[in-house]
Structure formats: C-alpha cells, structure tokens
Task: inverse folding
C-alpha cells in the first residue's frame, strides 16, 4: 500500500510539473514544437501526399480563370498555397528556403459562372468564388535529389479529385522551366505571397 501511495504521489507530482511546464510555455510563447514535417517517399522515389497540409501556414490564392484567358488558362482554379510551418519559421529568420521545404498548392475550382466574364454575383458583389477541390501540386526543396531542376522537385497529385496518394517528379520542361524563368525568388512565386515576400522576412 505504501509503495502504491508513493507511486500515485509521483504520478500526481509529475502531472503537476507537466501542467506547469505546458501552461508556462503557453505564456512565454514556446508551446509550439520545432519539429518539421519533411517529405516522405516510396521505395521507388515517388513523393507521398503530404499529411495535414490544411494546418500549415497559408500564404495565398492566385487565380487565373478561363474566362479571362480565352478559355484556355493553364490553371483555371484558385491556387491555395501552404508552406510547412517549420520550414516557414526558418525562412522568416534566414530569408532562405531550407532543405526539405514543402510548398503545397491545392487547386480549387470557381463556382459556375453567371456573367459573361466568368464571374458570378453573390451577396458580397460580383466576382470569382471558390468551389470544389480539384487536385494538388507540390514542390519540394532538395538540392541533391533535384539538382537537374535547380534544387526543387515538382509533383502533381491529380488535377481532379481525389488526390493521388503518391506522385512522380515532373520533368524540367513540365513545371520547373516556368518557375526558373518567372518566379521572383529561388523558383518560388513570392511576388504573389506577402508572407514570403522579402519585405516581410525578419
């Protein structure tokens, strides 16, 4: 009985210390884990669809609708872009995307058009409004694995739903060439994402 009581006391004391440490860390802003989610690959080198990306840091949603591009927009959806939180914290401090950075672009269709320019009218006014999910593209920073495309690998997890569970890396002429030629910084379209633009990097 005495040993049982002592064990219980230790558990209670330990729980109390853990509670103090947890809430203390909340007060000091140190509760967030520094653990990064890094890319996962299959045995044959395919990228596994990243997990829990909706909980990552959201950076922006560019839109190039068909109606404003002669009906032939390459990506007629909203591009909802997220960056893995641990990589984002490093980027904000250094201004560089660290090895293992994952940028997740979830595609989202616009709601059906009501007007000639492809827009529709909602209570907030005339515009383009997000509809159904439509697949995803993912970019990974790995200067060794993707040396042929300036250190970034580009993957498509379908341009429809459901998203594919894995994806093969795209060739340079499929994705990388456009990023290399036009993206503002290190093949990333930081000009469209205020959180990643140079002026916001500490």
Result:
């Amino acid at each position: 009985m005495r040993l049982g009581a002592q064990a219980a006391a230790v558990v209670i004391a330990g729980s109390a210390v853990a509670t103090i440490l947890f809430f203390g860390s909340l007060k000091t802003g140190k509760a967030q884990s520094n653990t990064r989610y890094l890319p996962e690959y299959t045995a044959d080198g395919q990228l596994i669809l990243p997990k829990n990306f909706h909980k990552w840091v959201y950076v922006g949603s560019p839109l190039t609708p068909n109606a404003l591009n002669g009906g032939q927009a390459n990506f007629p959806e909203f591009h909802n872009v997220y960056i893995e939180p641990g990589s984002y914290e490093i980027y904000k401090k250094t201004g560089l995307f660290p090895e293992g950075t994952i940028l997740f672009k979830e595609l989202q269709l616009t709601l059906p058009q009501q007007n000639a320019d492809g827009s529709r009218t909602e209570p907030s006014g005339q515009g383009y409004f997000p509809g159904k999910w439509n697949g995803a593209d993912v970019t990974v920073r790995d200067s060794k694995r993707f040396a042929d495309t300036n250190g970034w690998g580009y993957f498509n997890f379908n341009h429809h739903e459901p998203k594919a569970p894995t994806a093969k890396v795209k060739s340079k002429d499929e994705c990388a060439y456009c990023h290399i030629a036009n993206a503002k910084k290190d093949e990333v379209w930081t000009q469209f994402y205020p959180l990643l633009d140079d002026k916001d990097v500490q």
In short: The chain has three helices and nine strands. Residues 5-32 have pLDDT under 50 and may be disordered.
